[in-house]
Amino acid sequence: MSGWMLIFLGFIALLSFVGIIVTLIVWKRKKEGKMEEPDYQAFYIMGICFLLIGIILMATVSPAFIGFTGIGLFYMAIGLANRDKWKKED
Hints:
Layout: H1 3-32, H2 40-60, H3 66-81
Helix pairs in contact: 2-3
């Protein structure tokens, strides 16, 4: 196996591990009744960041980084769809 393939598989394993941990935390909070509404403004800001990173990586490294652009657009859409629920700073 090439070095890039090992890095890619390690990255997938890390993402899977983080996904399982996040799922367990959300399940536990939901069970305890401590669920809060997400900060949709943060989704919008993360969307902008992912969109810019995706565009830069697509232009400089490889078109395979289109996934970051897609995630960015998805997060921005979530943030804008729930703009009325953005947390106000006091």
